[in-house]
Amino acid sequence: MRKKIAVFTAVWNADYLYPFLQGLKQGALERNADLYIFNSYGDSEREYEAFTSGEYNIFLLPELSQFDGILIAANNVGVEPWLARLREEISRLGIPCVGVEQPDGMEYSIGVDNYRAMRAVVEHLVVNRKCRVLNYVGGPRDNGENILRKSAFLDVLKQYDLPCAPRRVLDYSFLTTDGIQAYQDFKELGLERPDAVVCANDNMAIGYLSGAEADGLSAPVDFLITGFDNTKQAQQYFPRVTSVDRGRKELGRSSLLFIDDLIEKRECPRQWYVPFHLALGESSGDRAENGWDGTFRRELYNINTRNDQTRRHLKHMRTALLGRKSPEEFAEIVSRFAPLLGMDRFVMAVESKKIVENSPIDRLFFGSYDGEAIRIETSGASGIIPQQWLREDGECHSYLFSPCHCNGKKFGYYVTIDNLEVIRENLLSEWMLAVDNAMENLRQNLNLQIMNRKLNELYRRDSMTGLYNRFALKEMGEELLRRNREQRRSTLVIFVDMDCLKKANDVFGHDIGDLALKTIADAMRQVCDGRMELAIRYGGDEFLLLGSYPGEAETKQIMMDVEQTISALGMERKLPFPLSASTGCARIDADAPENLEYHIGQADQRMYQRKMEKRKTRESASS
Hints:
single chain; eleven-stranded mixed beta sheet; 17 helices; elongated
């Protein structure tokens, strides 16, 4: 039976992640395992905190007890609070776990030896390039990798009796802009220009070079400079940046073998170091290895061509998603474009109630699998992938999970199956960002529609009785009349008027009068249910019932039921006077030319006749 390995990654550079995942896949094939990769694109800058929270929320998605082993390859700045929660749950469950390039807080870890790798860089500058004055541009002061790299820098200087003023060692945050800032900071300190600048990663080395270029300085003419990580950007930059290649593909493969050994309870070291390689470039005065040869140029051409095609599809997808008015339309478009972007096996899971609060379903899955469109609605608990997407075919599979969110709102997640290529060149993140933004627009539009319907309903309702009001009469009454005329049916209008409201208000007060009006409204609702379409407070003590004409006998029965129900409810609610109302009706034939108000007036006149008849009857009885 294949093992299930969960992998948690936080991407700072797609060039780093992709070969690592390739190596993982190779190891998974060797050890018969499926990969469940929970990937995030968190940002270390505080102004993007809402975005970063949405990204790292993917770490909370899986039920960890379902996995045989766990790899944590997330060493982004700012991710530690999320990893602490993750490690605590892993420890509680007792699941084998390995930290990839993050020994802090991990019982078992694997990665390059940062100390030895940085020593190799600095010794190359000191021994081979005869540098005597060196500056250090570091990452965050409390970052484990930066601590080791800085220690190596200082130890080499000490070993070779070279001076190192504290002002020549500055810590930042691993960003390209930090390199630019470091150049300005060293410049403002008024220090002698160094022979070499050692940077804790490639981003800062490129930033430093950019800052120096603005002053007309360059490497290797005016100073030497090195980085760490050997990213594509560092390889493509001119001068090519001397750096440390971590052997990312081998790191991935070894990580999988390591966690498998732990699962199988084989003897394992606490710390597994993988080989590193010093990748020389012109920035340190060396001849660049594997420079702009044919293979590199072809790869760059293929990358640019692939990116152009993908971005063209992205542009069309963004346009198609504009103005979508339903989740169904949205799902259809995303499912149609996903294969064009290289995602032939793709799932999107949407937490429906986070899009529309009153959604009848909890989670909507949609996507495509080898050209077959799939859509599944679920309520209550469900797995993170529908069962039909989990292939039990004897092959090893990879499932890449990424979060779906926007402006701090979490909508769900994406899953790409057996396609780690989408990680390359950060195109997956661009695609997700386009879908995330479109999803937020859809959410806003749907909730705006709901809000407008609620406001429209409030606009059409009488605040005291809850019945429809005269605004609703104009809209809904006219619509009823038009529909009946189209279907050659007659329409019935019943006018209801409370008897003696003024007297009730004068004798018992307006609170009792209001209660009487509410009682009439409740009685009309009871009678209207299933027999008439609209119950309306026309104004003051006047009410209307509208519906399709049911015949003369039923019309009389409805009017009688209205009057009797009003009286009965009045007694039931112990009103201090006999509650009663008078009714009158008008039939509107399908070919009647007059408007609705005319026929309401006719029903009002007949109601008044009925009221006069009742008054005469009462006067006769009293005399």
